[in-house]
Fold:
Amino acid sequence: MGNPLMATLTTPSELAQRRPVFRAGGRFDRLVPILTVVLAILVLWYVFAVILNAPGEIDRAERVGHPLSFTQTITATMDARRPVLPAPHQVVAELWKTTVATPVTSKRSLIYHAGVTLSSTLLGFALGTALGILLAIGIVHSKALDKSLMPWIITSQTIPIIALAPMVIVVLNAIDITGLLPKALISMYLAFFPVAVGMVKGLRSPEIMHLDLMHTYSASRAQTFWKLRGPSAVPFLFTSMKVAIAIALVGAIVAELPTGAVAGLGARLLAGSYYGQTVQIWSALIMASICAALLVVIVDAVGKVVTRRMGVQP
Amino acid sequence: MVNTIDSTDAISDPFAAAGHGARPHPPHRSEKVIEAKGLDLTFQTGDGAVHALSDIHLSVERGEFVSLIGPSGCGKTTLLRVIADLERPTGGTIAVNGVSPAQARLARAYGYVFQSSALFPWRTIANNIALPLEIMGFGRADRKQRVRENLELVNLAGFEKKFPWQLSGGMQQRASIARALSFDPDMLLMDEPFGALDEIVRDHLNEQLLRLWAKTKKTVVFVTHSIPEAVFLSTKIVVMSPRPGRVHEIIDCDLGEDRPLDIRESEKFLEIAHRVREGLRAGHSYEE
Ligand SMILES: Nc1ncnc2c1ncn2[C@@H]1O[C@H](COP(=O)(O)OP(=O)(O)OP(=O)(O)O)[C@@H](O)[C@H]1O
Ligand SMILES: [Mg+2]
Structure:
């Protein structure tokens, strides 16, 4: 039924109006506030490094009989051997030394340790995400599971992981399960929660009208799941996976503490505090944050690509 | 053959009878597509019962274009949803194609068009139109052909790869009509499909719908607030009145099959419109 009048309603100009508007200077606008905050943190860090390290340095100088002038004190706090709070450039130097200047295969390489922690993080994250999705599917499709599982899921997260981790690790070690898996299980324990909660919300997010539409087609539950509930839940999934991967890393680090593990960022933290190596502690800490940020950014980027392919309005 | 509302439970396998891609032929033993007798529906809500439909008698013949018109809240949507098995009546009987609404739904008796297009935002226009086909198990080649045909039917050829947000409201609504038509149901149930569109777009879509109806001989049940729209499109206008919703008057609308837009200036058109307006007014007045 070719109606020329209809055709005029669907001219390309109608489409052109709906194209996203390009925003100029968006990147620069975003960078300025971030850099400002970074700068403020660095300034504060230096100030506190001086304040916290000064008493120790003054003490030591007095003990050897060479009292320090004001400027000498400041300089000393910037380069203390065992600072209470290492100055940022000390941490950067240590990071440089243990990443770029050390081969990855060496036990002294921070990249090696990060790799150990990351592998259990990723395994735990994958397991946790799978578990979270399965639980959510069960909860959304069964009233009984909703009633019986949800309270337990919430209770599980009220147990402090720092108390639970040692028990799990020790018990698993006792039955000869060691290495990657016990750590991954702790990560999974933390990671499944946001995914389960987010996916329950996501799978329940379709509009009533869309559900009604599926009903008019006499769609089965499985069809409604694959064609409606699942796609609707995708944005929720990525939001909760961003939280999940960050806490999976926390779980992996915590899981490295109780056994006095020899490798991993947690082991570095433990060894550092054992020997009062604050610079080592801080560089491990910074490394952990870098890993967390990278992981979150990667999940976010994958999420953006997926939702873009699903036709989300840019 | 009229099923009581208690026996609306489903046939076990909706697609067994249909096979792949093939639509079961509607039972010809009854020319009555919809037959409602003494239909009653009360919603139980948190703050009391809402009597939405009361003693509705309605019969729709094959090939008719029936409009439901009435003030807001008089139960037009509810009645349409009962026909579509989206709502269960609390009293009376209803038969669709001679069977219960649930059985009719399983036999793909109707395509439903909502007030908003209800397209899935993550599917392209072509994939949106293919949605019911995928669910109903049409083969890939068949799906492709039906999508193309129905896009052409609603004048959306060339837009198959666009996502819904890239289309205007009128185009989206046309896509949703194409989706409802894609599996070739014998009946279209439309709930104010053009309610949110401006008058000019609405006029064009009305013309298109009318031609589509003349060409396909489908039965249409059409909810609207607009008197001219109802008179222009219908063969029969059901005037409803509110609280509780009931059928106030049924007005025949015999303007013939060929209805150019300017038929709306004709004497006969104005006379029917006048009767509908009077009916709406009378239905309202004995409320107060
Ligand atoms: N799911 C529901 N639960 C409770 N009450 C409902 C429900 N759906 C509709 N109603 C009530 O039933 C009555 C009829 O509603 P309905 O939507 O059928 O009216 P309508 O004629 O379609 O109105 P409109 O023209 O505004 O769309 C209204 O009073 C409404 O509040
Ligand atoms: Mg309505």
